[in-house]
Specification:
The complex is a heterodimer. By secondary structure, chain A is an alpha/beta fold. Chain A contains 23 helices and eleven strands. In chain A, the strands form three sheets. Chain A has a five-stranded mixed beta sheet with strand order 3-5-4-6-7. A four-stranded parallel beta sheet of chain A has the order 9-8-10-11, sandwiched between helices. A two-stranded antiparallel ribbon of chain A has the order 1-2. In chain A, helix 22 links the parallel strand 10 and strand 11. In chain B, 36% of the residues lie in helices and 21% in strands. In chain B, strand 5 and strand 6 form a beta hairpin. Chain B is globular. At the A-B interface, helix 2, helix 4 and helix 5 of A face helix 2, helix 9 and helix 12 of B. Chain B: It comes from Desulfosporosinus nitroreducens.
Chain lengths: 416, 458
């Protein structure tokens, strides 16, 4: 039983009141109990009790969880459904490895910078030209693949390792993350621009790797640890002059700041180093709000209605919600409009969008409708995965809104 | 196990994806909010009345029983597939057909979640008064099956009082409509009121005409804090005696103040013996007078009386109250919830009775109560894995039921009888009354196919 034994008391603390039903989007949209937090918890408990042998249906229930964390906030007993699902995924990985092959291939590719880079180049070049020749293949499982952006060259190869400013007040280590490196390189440039405009020297280690979150989420702690160790050592040993490690991806930050501690809980000798790393990690909006942004430098002449989507890791992982909204409203002529359920998952949820596309498409459709209802011109957010998912959903619904990172909205307001 | 032919036919009726026969799926439809569980032969989720009719006919042909289910949050075991049966889940019948604000009527499907209906109604400045604590998850169909109450019952009544009409599929597969859009008049038998609260043993409801009300223009929420739970119960009796009807009059004892506070951080004082949550609603000009009178009555005994100042404060107070049941596993993993109800004037005696049972049996009991209705939910906390302790809890539950009956009360105010309270029903009713129940059941469902074994044994 192992992994599940460690969480058994929490499993047993669920008294099946069903309060989590309202928190669980996969339940709300399917009406199926096995797609609810309570259902998943009872299934995991049945496996822990030896009453159920994990089978395909069990794996589907466990793997289709968005890990959005809303259930943990909603449960009056403090049961964290998302953590129980993580334990179940770890248990499954130990039992039979990661299935199907496509998923383990995707996770391994993400973990290896070389393979990931090659994958993106191939997709951006040949892949897209092939796609464009196939009629009707605009959306693959609800994902807007034809418009899926790919960087011509990884961001890390576009910039020097250190970007200096005239009067540096801060030294910031920039953890770029896979999506900003390979797909949304413009956003990575925006981050650098906002930082430098606010007197930050930016250090961008070229030898950075995936944070390990995707592998961690599917129970592959071994690979996640390898990448985590590399990340920690890179920033702490080789680039120790960076005062903070900043990322503009809420998910990466949550992994770097919180999950690394859990991941290395069984390595007491290394743990102090992990702790000092975690304390250095900051999220973009959080950091900008903290050091203060010089509003007089921001210019914008076009009126703009903006709404903000809270990525799951931002709102529930990091609890950073006010800062991005504040930054957006610092831009002149921006009218801010709050959307309904701004803090609920957009349906991307890592690989869920590819493997459980029916439910994730419904979730995205709801989100795009909420966006539409605000009459906003622009949707800002703080996670590249959400950006891609939201833009795809908006395009698919035939809506016009543009999706940008908070850093992009700010960067556009600086005169060069 | 269902035969291949039956499964195939079910899939033809409702579609492949709406039939569950695998072990994992069945496991998740085997439990509800109680400690009981069972395993269904299959789960079928219809989306229209026609599909429900077809399912009933098919089940009749094959002599298979049906257990209706909403969100499965009930506290009576009413949705447990205790006999060989197919669960018919209404969670995919979620249409709100109509909101008619001129006639104060909404027409909905049974799977609509109470909260989702409230959200749609609020857009038109209306609401649906019955609001059980589970309202964010529970369905209108489930609410009517159990005849749920909720904090607002004191002034506004229970689910039964808001059901104007039903579309019902009978055990013989025929569809009837009871009542409808009209208020008051239901010529002939009032079948609506017989079916509401019948826990699905008489018919399957497929459409509901509910009565809705305009949202009151003003409300005030007050808190009265006490050293002892007995003191709080005296204020309840005093308010009722003074002829005041607050919207809600809710009581939580020290144990629940603490478990809910762990979750909500609403700022309820952890050292208080009990808290009363009192709310009044109506016209803005009526508020001050009512608050003043209640304040005077409460302050005679309460150690502190205060009025919530902000909407956020009010929200937090209600989140605390609504999460009471859910939060007790912080203390012990299992709970037995009781639903005893006594005439209002006997409320202080019932509180004394609960404390006595806790002492006599040496069990931990947390008390939450819709005090204005005389409806108490003593929650007995324990660990189901401990057999001896579990038996003591069952004995204590029986003692609570007997205590309520001795005070001219009833064993269930709003949770229904289901399986959990079935063994106490003949303590409350005479053999002749029990036989009348059975006769009604037989006249609707002679073959005992709808939710068999719930409420009464035939």
């Amino acid at each position: 039983m192992g992994v599940l034994a460690d969480v058994y008391e929490m499993l047993n603390t669920c008294n099946k009141c069903g309060g989590c039903h309202t928190a669980c989007k996969t339940y709300k949209l399917t009406g199926s109990e096995e797609m609810s937090t309570r259902g998943r918890i009872q299934l995991i408990k049945a496996v822990a009790d030896g009453k159920l042998e994990p089978n395909q249906e069990y794996e589907d229930a466990i793997m289709s969880c968005l890990l959005c964390g809303e259930c943990a906030v909603t449960c009056p007993n403090g049961v964290h459904g998302n953590e129980l699902v993580m334990a179940a995924r770890r248990d499954l990985k130990l039992r039979k490895g990661i299935k199907p092959f496509v998923k383990s291939f995707a996770l391994n590719t993400l973990a290896s910078p070389k393979r990931l880079g090659m994958g993106f180049r191939l997709f951006g070049g040949m892949g897209k030209s092939v796609l464009n020749k196939i009629d009707g293949l605009d959306y693959f499982r609800g994902i807007d693949i034809r418009n899926f952006p790919t960087a011509k060259k990884p961001f890390l190869e576009q910039v020097p390792q250190k970007i200096t400013v005239q009067h540096p007040k801060h030294k910031v280590g920039f953890y770029v993350g896979c999506f900003l490196n390979h797909s949304l390189d413009q956003t990575a440039h925006s981050v650098v621009k906002v930082l430098t405009k606010n007197d930050c020297e930016v250090i961008i280690p070229k030898d950075q790797v995936c944070c390990g979150l995707p592998q961690y989420c599917y129970g592959d702690f071994e690979t996640a640890k390898r990448n985590a160790r590399k990340t920690i050592d890179t920033f702490l040993d080789k680039y120790s002059d960076a005062e903070v490690v900043l990322s503009a991806c809420g998910s990466c930050v949550a992994m770097l700041r919180h999950d690394y501690l859990k991941l290395f809980a069984d390595e007491p000798s290394y743990l102090p180093k992990v702790k000092s790393f975690c304390e250095k990690v900051v999220e973009f909006s959080e950091y900008m709000a903290k050091i203060g942004v010089d509003q007089s430098k921001l210019h914008n002449s076009t009126p703009l209605t903006v709404t903000y989507h809270d990525p799951c890791h931002m709102v529930r992982g990091l609890k950073v919600t006010t800062q991005p909204r504040q930054l957006l409203q610092m831009v002149p002529r921006v009218e801010y409009k709050e959307m309904f359920e701004a803090n609920r998952c957009c349906g991307a949820a890592g690989l869920i969008q590819a493997f459980y596309h029916e439910v994730s498409t419904d979730i995205t459709d709801q989100k795009t409708q909420n966006i539409k209802d605000t009459n906003a011109d622009l949707v800002a957010t703080s996670c590249p995965a959400c950006m891609l998912r939201l833009q795809g959903g908006i395009n698919k619904a035939g809506q016009k809104q543009k999706v940008m990172h908070v850093a992009d909205v700010m960067a556009n307001a600086y005169e060069d | 196990m269902l035969s291949q032919a039956v499964v195939k036919r079910l899939k033809e009726i409702v579609g492949e994806r709406n039939v569950v026969t695998d072990k994992v799926g069945l496991l998740t439809y085997g439990y509800d909010g109680t400690l009981l569980s069972g395993e269904a032969l299959g789960v079928v989720s219809p989306q229209t009345t026609e599909q429900v009719v077809e399912i009933v006919k098919l089940m009749n042909e094959h002599d298979i029983k049906l257990v209706p289910r909403g969100a499965g949050t009930n506290e009576s075991g009413g949705t447990i597939p205790s006999e060989k049966s197919v669960v018919i889940s209404f969670t995919k019948m979620t249409k709100i057909h109509e909101i008619d604000t001129e006639n104060f009527v909404a027409v909905v499907e049974p799977g609509v979640i109470n909260f989702d209906l409230q959200v749609e109604l609020a857009k038109k400045n209306f609401y649906f008064p019955p609001d059980p604590s589970s309202f964010k998850a529970s369905t209108i169909g489930g609410n009517l099956g159990e005849c749920s109450g909720g904090p607002k019952c004191f002034k506004y009544g229970v689910t039964r009082d808001y059901m104007l009409g039903l579309e019902v599929v009978l055990p013989n597969g025929k569809v009837i409509q009871t009542g409808g859009r009209n208020f008051q008049s239901e010529p002939g038998y009032d079948l609506t009121r017989i079916i509401v609260g019948s826990e699905g043993i008489l018919g399957l409801v497929t459409k509901v005409f509910v009565r809705i009300l305009p949202i009151p223009r003003a409300k005030k929420t007050m808190l009265a804090l006490y050293d002892k739970v007995e003191d709080a119960s005296q204020t309840v009796a005093d308010i009722v005696a003074a002829g005041i009807i607050p919207t809600t009059l809710e009581l939580m004892d020290n144990l629940l103040i603490n478990t809910t506070e762990d979750f909500t951080h609403a700022g309820l004082p952890r050292d208080a013996g009990a808290v009363l949550i009192i709310e009044v609603d109506g016209y803005p000009e009526d508020m001050d007078g009512q608050v003043k009178t209640i304040g005077e009555i409460a302050s005679k005994i309460a150690k502190e009386f205060k009025v919530a100042q902000t909407a956020v404060e009010v929200d937090q107070i209600w989140t605390s109250r609504r999460s009471a049941f859910g939060s007790v596993a912080r203390v012990r993993p299992s709970y037995g919830v009781n639903d005893i109800t006594v005439p209002r004037s006997n409320f202080p005696k019932a509180i004394e009775g609960v404390l006595k049972v806790a002492k006599d049996f040496g069990v931990t009991i947390g008390v939450v109560a819709h005090a204005g209705d005389g409806n108490l939910h003593p929650l007995i906390l324990f660990d189901q894995r401990n057999k001896e302790e579990t038996e003591t809890v069952h004995a204590a539950e029986q003692a609570l039921c007997m205590m309520a009956l001795d005070l001219d009360g009833t064993i269930s105010g709003e949770h229904g009888i289901g399986l959990v309270k079935k063994k106490y029903l003949d303590k409350e009713f005479t053999p002749a009354a029990m036989e009348a129940f059975r006769k009604i059941k037989r006249s609707f469902d002679p073959s005992n196919r709808f939710n068999p074994g719930k409420i009464i044994d035939l």
